[in-house]
Structure formats: C-alpha cells, structure tokens
User: Fold this.
Amino acid sequence: MAASTDVDQKVLHARKSVRPGIDFTIHELTLPSGTAVREYVSADGRVFAVAWRGPTLPDLKQIFGDNNLQAFLSAPAEHHVPRKSRTVRQPGLVVHSAGAGRFFTGFAYIPSLKPGSVREEDIR
Assistant:
C-alpha cells in the first residue's frame, strides 16, 4: 500500500519526493548513499513495482518484503552471472537486478498489480 512508502522512507533514512501521474504515482526515495529507489503506486494505492539505481544496493528485504524477496532468491534465474546480473520471471513476480563495483540497478514488479498501460520499460 502507498503507506508502505512512508515506512520505507523512515526505515531507510531517505528523502522522499512524489511525482503524480495519470495511472500511477512514483514515490522516489533518495538514500543517504545516493541510491534512488522508485516505488510505483497504482491509482488504487497499491505498490506494484520498485526500481533502484545508484552506488549501493538498497535494503531489498525492506523494499520487497520477506515473501517477495524469498521468491526472488529461490527462483531459478533466467539469466545469472555471479555478482553481476540476475533476472527472474514468474507469474507472480518479475525481478531484474544488476551491479558491479559501485553501480547497482534493478527493478521488480508484480504483473497482476501492474496497470495495463504500464510497460516493463516504464519501470526504471
């Protein structure tokens, strides 16, 4: 739910900005490390996607929640190069995470919650 973005802001000690849109709103959290985390909230108030980019990997347990993080970690990867890239596509969760050195990027979304007008490429 949208209120979870406030919890994430507090737990991650982040600055928050909100960009309203027609079909969804982006809640962008800027972590003390400089990493940006975008949480995509549908018109009905549910977080349907997250994306991150920056010098450190965000706390994925906080962002995904325990169940979704475990699904990502335990699922067979579509593409996996140790410490570089991992993609998982399941009916209930799509995640791509990549990183090397001091640059990490990734996104995750729940297909059943994603508004029809939103393409995977829009979640960045």
